[in-house]
Amino acid sequence: MPPLPAHSPRKVPRQERSRRTMERILDAATRVLAERGYDGASTNRIAAAAGLSNGSLYQYFPNKDAIVVAVLDRFADHLAERLGAEIEAAMSEPWQTGGRSLLEAQIRLLEENADLLRVVVEHVPRLGPFGKLDALRQRLADLVRIYLLLNRDRFRPGLDVDAALWIITETVGQLAIRYVLDRPPIPHDRMVDELAELIIRYIRSEPAP
Amino acid sequence: MPPLPAHSPRKVPRQERSRRTMERILDAATRVLAERGYDGASTNRIAAAAGLSNGSLYQYFPNKDAIVVAVLDRFADHLAERLGAEIEAAMSEPWQTGGRSLLEAQIRLLEENADLLRVVVEHVPRLGPFGKLDALRQRLADLVRIYLLLNRDRFRPGLDVDAALWIITETVGQLAIRYVLDRPPIPHDRMVDELAELIIRYIRSEPAP
Amino acid sequence: MPPLPAHSPRKVPRQERSRRTMERILDAATRVLAERGYDGASTNRIAAAAGLSNGSLYQYFPNKDAIVVAVLDRFADHLAERLGAEIEAAMSEPWQTGGRSLLEAQIRLLEENADLLRVVVEHVPRLGPFGKLDALRQRLADLVRIYLLLNRDRFRPGLDVDAALWIITETVGQLAIRYVLDRPPIPHDRMVDELAELIIRYIRSEPAP
Amino acid sequence: MPPLPAHSPRKVPRQERSRRTMERILDAATRVLAERGYDGASTNRIAAAAGLSNGSLYQYFPNKDAIVVAVLDRFADHLAERLGAEIEAAMSEPWQTGGRSLLEAQIRLLEENADLLRVVVEHVPRLGPFGKLDALRQRLADLVRIYLLLNRDRFRPGLDVDAALWIITETVGQLAIRYVLDRPPIPHDRMVDELAELIIRYIRSEPAP
DNA sequence: CATGAATGAGACTTCATTCAT
DNA sequence: CATGAATGAAGTCTCATTCAT
């Protein structure tokens, strides 16, 4: 049985120069992926874009997919960092405005990274579950879960928390993605409002007066 | 003027044998796509799966993508046919139950074709817009639009029909897809109910008593 | 040792219908060759142009090259027939004008068949010596030889008949071909004159008065 | 890595290897072309003849035609270099012997490269105009044109310089080619004499006494 | 005889990956 | 560590030719 293909960086670079080279590779790979899609992102093109010889790539990554995974992980880190800040800010607001802010932030973040998002969604073959992107998704789900549990009595009686959790996170996530990738003729702010309305009405027990 | 790259079958088979071979190719391609994804679906493998020589494929299709498109078109035809029946049935019901039936039918249909759906969603790079799949999507959107327009006064005052249309169709479509592909621990019927609830609450003007 | 590839028609058709089909194939092949060159002249395209199924070709010709050879032979026959008439006419004229007429006829004939000529010269890989084209060349050479021998005393003393024969026929043949294919900015009549001048001066013993 | 010996060429050991490989490819391609013609010169065969893997070819050339063009360019360079020397030498002679020398040189050069010449003339489909071969042809044409213009008064009155230029260059070029490829039973020196005679008589105003 | 479906060898090309320097 | 030449498997596609109907 052949060894499973390793998808993690071959080495954790200790030296500064190595770290910089690795960044250059990831920057280049990100650019190439965004511009030419997964299939167009050959290792040679990535190496060229990074100003490196093609062989050098393999000193930092065991194979092409490891590079892609690293790009996606870094993308997830970026999103996590940015969203983290928004989450903290949102926690100090009342939940109504806080929730809306988070929604808005999520859409805005995706809009800022539409190219890479398109690659993730449309072009990247499944490379096994994406550790960090899934972690980010999980983190947002946890937030919603806590909120749902804490405010259980405010919601309509029959609400199945587990089902609702899935519905809400997927609705927000998928609609945000489609909104950014398909660019329907809906203004950004309106989109946020509609999404908020969709979710709030789904869980609240009483209609707005 | 050069002929546009043809994505349509090279020949319309007149003989029975020819028709059967074409079906064999499409069946094989469907199987291979479902099992190995778009990138893994080489013409060689499709030919082998169809019990044909590689060259024979090209008597029926001008290139690989034409085969994939044909598979997707056939998939869309299948869905359209099945959904068509459901739509007719739903039209003779009162709209509350009719709408739910349609929702249920849509999810059920996707469940029955999960493998191919996965390929469509995850693996197939954009081959230009898919004629027939998009047509089907459009048809459903039209249905929703008509419903929204006819019942405009029943809904909450501020409802932006265009925005709502997009929100509704994408929500239903994307959630159904994710439900089928990710298999969250939500029973089929519950899923239908939640989805119906999500949509109805989004548009109605008064709370359910 | 495998049998040598046969380059002659598989059968001499006895029935009228067969003969007509054969003509259709040759017409089609001629057209396709002229329009798309040797490499572009696939058997399928020839069959299509002839309004036949691709398999039927092989009832009349053992392989593709046999078709090409037949086309070229027919071309040679056509040239021979036309030139034959001109030769006869030329024989009843005084040799000075007769020679010029032949020159003119040769260039005119090639001009009328420039497309096919281009294929013969530029695209057709050597398929062994072309029986009939070579025969035609030989016939013209014989004519020149006879003329040279009969008028030996009129020419400059040192003339080596064999060398001159080759020089003359090749000069006329090659220049006519290049003239037709490369279309230099020289009018047809001038070209004939120059060619005549070139040859006459080469062999005559006395200057023009 | 051990320090490089101080006296070893500091220059490009890598590029040197590369250069050699390229030469090997061109040599192999030349050989294969000469032996099997254009159609028989597959990339696989060229690679094999060069002792390389098929893929390596594409490190040096973007496609098959680029290889053929490079072979032809190298051939043209070779001819140009050799002819260049002859031209210089001829310029220091009186024009009568100089012209003959050039004629002789041209035929001799072609004889030395008969194999490749055959490929160029018979097998290579038009790959667009051959830069360097055409340049060489042009260079010779210019030489003739200058000579014709400078000696205009020495020639017969009615001479059309443009027509004559074309006639002369094509006559010499085509006859030399046919002589080398068809090997008529004419000795080399005789051939040169006849060719010279043919041209001189064509342009001169007075016959030799 | 005609048909056209089927064949299969072989062409060109790409690309992830390895390895000697 | 870096380089880039070299590899070779695999992919898409074409085409002359055969054969069952």
Give short descriptive properties of this protein:
DNA-binding; Tetracycline Repressor, domain 2; Arc Repressor Mutant, subunit A; mainly alpha; 2 domains; 209 residues; homotetramer
Structural commentary:
4 copies of one chain form a homotetramer. Chain A has 209 residues and is mainly α. Chain A folds into 2 domains: 55 residues, Homeodomain-like (Arc Repressor Mutant, subunit A, Orthogonal Bundle), CATH 1.10.10.60; 133 residues, Tetracycline Repressor, domain 2 (Orthogonal Bundle). Chain A is 72% helix and 0% strand. Chain A contains 9 helices and no strands. In chain A, helix 1 packs across helix 6. The interface between A and B is medium-sized, with 31 and 31 residues. Chain D binds a DNA duplex (21 and 21 nucleotides) through helix 1 and helix 3.
- Give the amount of beta strand of chain A, in percent: under 5%
Gyration radius of chain A, rounded: 20 Å
Number of helices of chain A: 9
The largest pleated sheet of chain A is described as: none
- Determine the oligomeric state from the structure: homotetramer
CATH secondary-structure class of the largest domain in chain A: Mainly Alpha
CATH superfamily name of the largest domain in chain A? Tetracycline Repressor, domain 2
Q: In CATH terms, what is the architecture of the largest domain in chain A? A: Orthogonal Bundle
Mean pLDDT of chain A: 87
Spans of chain A with pLDDT under 50 lasting ≥5 residues? none
Helicity level of chain A, as a percent range? over 70%
| SSE pattern of chain A, N- to C-terminal | HHHHHHHHH
By CATH, the topology of the largest domain in chain A is Tetracycline Repressor, domain 2
- Give the chain pair forming the largest contact, with residue counts: A-B, 31 and 31 residues
Overall tally of structural domains of chain A: 2
Counted beta strands of chain A: 0
What structural category arises from helix and sheet content of chain A? mainly alpha
**What general form of chain A does the structure show?**
elongated
Rounded to the nearest angstrom, the distance between the terminal CA atoms of chain A is 66 Å
Keywords (chains A, B, C, D): DNA-binding
Domain HTH tetR-type (chains A, B, C, D): 19-79
Protein name (chains A, B, C, D): TetR/AcrR family transcriptional regulator
InterPro entries (chains A, B, C, D): DNA-bd_HTH_TetR-type_CS, Homeodomain-like_sf, HTH-type_TetR-like_transc_reg, HTH_TetR, Tet_transcr_reg_TetR-rel_C_sf, TetR_C_15
